[in-house]
Amino acid sequence: MSKVSTGSTKRRRRPAAPAAPAAPAPVMPAPERGGRAQQKLDTRRRIRDAAWALFTELGYDDTTTKAVAERAEVATGTVFVHARDKADLLMMVMHDRLAAAVDAAFEALPRKEPLLPQLLHVFQRLFAMYGEQPLVSQAFVKAFPGASGPNGERLNALTFAFLHRIAGLVRDAQARGEVAGDIEPLAAAHNVFALYFAALLSWLSGFVTLGAALDPVLKSSLALQLRGLRA
Fold first, then answer.
1. What proportion of the chain, given as a percentage, has pLDDT over 70?
2. Cβ of 89: how many Cβ atoms within 10 Å?
3. CA separation for the pair 186, 167 (Å, rounded)
């Protein structure tokens, strides 16, 4: 009789399954080296400030883009990254000044006054801003219509936003019963803006002083316009 071995048989271990490859880490956008975005803003500010300083010191006509580049300590080509030409530089410096004047005017708006005093309040702030540097302002008023550079486009957008804020004043006047309810507020705002710009042109043409362009020229024109808008 043959002897059967009673020793336990060793089980073969199955090879372990290969580990799944680790998921790749999400690719994060590399931060701009040296804060390029901030550098670009700083360069734009230096160019804007240099242009404003030269416009006020030498006058718009006698300022060159080369002089602006030298004052801003940048290459001449860098100026043209931020403005198409000298006229567009003028749009750049005036954009920020106008935006600040408009914001300040609406923040201090006499909300309980009728529409005419409110409009005069807003335009008085703008006329005061123009009066700070009248020669630069005159150059701007000449160059602004038809401005098509990148900064001119920003100014056009600012103008459209301003029209909508004036339309808001007209809408509020409608709610108070000062303006007829069937008047389109934005259309009325366009009329008001046209009167404002005509008053500026009367000053630019030398017919009246800047102060007289506001009162009585603009004031009387607005009063006549509002008579036609009454409910």
1. 85
2. 27
3. 5
The string over 36-55, giving b where at least 16 C-beta atoms fall within 10 Å of a residue's C-beta and e elsewhere, is eeeeeeebbebbbebbbebb
What Cα–Cα distance (Å) separates residue 89 from each residue in 119, 141, 150, 175? 29, 14, 10, 41
pLDDT digits (tens, 9 = 90+) for 79-98: 999 999 999 999 999 999 99
Count of CB atoms situated within 10 Å of the CB of 11: 6
CB atoms within 10 A of CB 216: 12
Task: Give the mean model confidence (pLDDT) for residues 148-152.
Answer: 92
Task: Show the tokens assigned to 14.
Answer: 């199955």
Residue 144 DSSP symbol? S
Cβ atoms of 110 and 79 closer than 8 Å: no
Amino acid identity of residue 192, one-letter, is: V
CA atoms within 13 A on the CB side of 98: 21
Q: Which two tokens stand for residue 128?
A: 């005061």
Half-sphere exposure of 117 (CA within 13 A, CB side): 7
CB contact at 8 A, 117 and 176 = no
Q: Check if the beta carbon of residue 72 is closer than 8 Å to that of residue 47.
A: yes
What is the rounded distance in angstroms from the CA atom of residue 196 to the CA atom of residue 98?
A: 14
